[in-house]
Amino acid sequence: MDREQALKALSALAHADRLDLIRLLVRQGPEGMAAGQIGQALGGLAASRLSFHLAALEGAALISSRKAARNVIYAARPEVLGGLLSYLLHDCCSADPRIFACCLGHGEAGTDKT
Amino acid sequence: MDREQALKALSALAHADRLDLIRLLVRQGPEGMAAGQIGQALGGLAASRLSFHLAALEGAALISSRKAARNVIYAARPEVLGGLLSYLLHDCCSADPRIFACCLGHGEAGTDKT
DNA sequence: TGAATACTTCAACACTTCATGAGTAGTTGA
DNA sequence: TCAACTACTCATGAAGTGTTGAAGTATTCA
Q1: Crossing angle of helices B78-86/B16-28, nearest 10°?
Q2: What is the pLDDT of residues B41-57, one digit of tens each?
Q3: Which of A2, A63, A114, B55 has the lowest tally of Cβ within 10 angstroms?
């Protein structure tokens, strides 16, 4: 992954709805989920709004879509998500051991109370 | 790290100048770097623009600052960067093994030509 | 004290992003 | 063909982001 693609991906992820979308689709696995179902799962997100955010994620290559009859099925692209994390960790953060430690240790590393 | 903080951090990172800033400051280590030096290292970024972006990164807790005489020294906060990566990997991507694989394998995983 | 240095803050402007509702396009089954 | 269904696109306006240059604040030194 290059810088341009990483920036696109970061912009795409920097929105609450889209982060929820990714979380949902990653859990859904390769089968993916129809747009209508996604909208319901996210608490009845307006269709146009959902479409807007799905397009943003697809534009950043974080998800893919395929048609199935009258539905459009969306699925996460784990290799691109992994590529983004890899870029941040290796290219951007120089594989800094302090960052590695926080990242690999599960969960709450780095959330000291301040 | 919680969702709000992760969103702040993602927004902060989703800009070319700020990604360059982080890269530079991570490499610089705990000693950090004075604002003026940073501006020079980034090719003579206008002072007000640099200040704006540094404030954005500090607002997202990705960097810290301290005064030293007439300089302001900025340094990356690797534990917060690690916390963000950890959040994305564990909370958001459910520690999906496909993402783990791309993320930990160095570099170019997930950048297949399409 | 006054000039020089190092940064930050402010106001103005251009640009982008986002939410909303209305309209459009493709698929299915009667 | 028509109605129902599913999803996308477009126009609009509000809100947010980024750049610029000028002004302001704090520190140092002669």
Answers
A1: 120
A2: 999 999 999 999 999 99
A3: A114
